[in-house]
Automatic annotation (TrEMBL):
PROSITE patterns documented for this protein: 2FE2S_FER_2
Cofactor: [2Fe-2S] cluster
Protein name in the entry: 2Fe-2S iron-sulfur cluster binding domain-containing protein
Boundaries of every 2Fe-2S ferredoxin-type domain copy: 2-105
Highest taxon, organism lineage: Bacteria
MF term (GO), any: 2 iron, 2 sulfur cluster binding
UniProt family annotation: Belongs to the adrenodoxin/putidaredoxin family.
Keywords assigned by UniProt, alphabetized: 2Fe-2S, Iron, Iron-sulfur, Metal-binding
Ranges that cross the membrane: none
């Protein structure tokens, strides 16, 4: 298990205990993070699992696939460090990671 904190646009925070190997999106939804609705269930088809990864944590992520890039482009989200949580698995290097969430994912 690693601890990951999700920070909503309004500053509210949810800390989750995420099993290594689980989808980062699943860790967020099982942890009841309000700003990750993940409407497509992790099929890289909705973009409602976007997270903003601060620079110091980006090395925990593999390079995005072309389908992840396409979905991020669809949203035209120019924010630095934007990734789709459903396309990344939790790994041990993520322990203590803090991720920010887009304003349009604040429900
Ligand atoms: S859950 Fe739909 S793109 Fe990630």
């Amino acid at each position: 298990m690693v601890k990951i904190t999700f920070v909503e646009h309004d500053g509210s925070r949810t800390e989750v205990d995420a099993p290594v190997g689980q989808s980062l999106m699943r860790a967020a939804t099982y942890g009841e993070v309000p700003g990750i609705s993940a409407d497509c269930g992790g099929n890289c088809a909705c973009g409602t699992c976007r997270v903003y990864v601060p620079e110091q944590w980006r090395s925990c992520f593999a390079n995005p696939s072309s389908s992840e890039k396409d979905m991020i482009d669809y949203w035209n989200d120019q924010t630095d460090g934007v990734r789709l949580a459903c396309q990344t698995k939790v790994n041990e290097a993520m322990d203590g990671m803090i991720l920010n969430l887009p304003e349009d994912q604040h429900y």
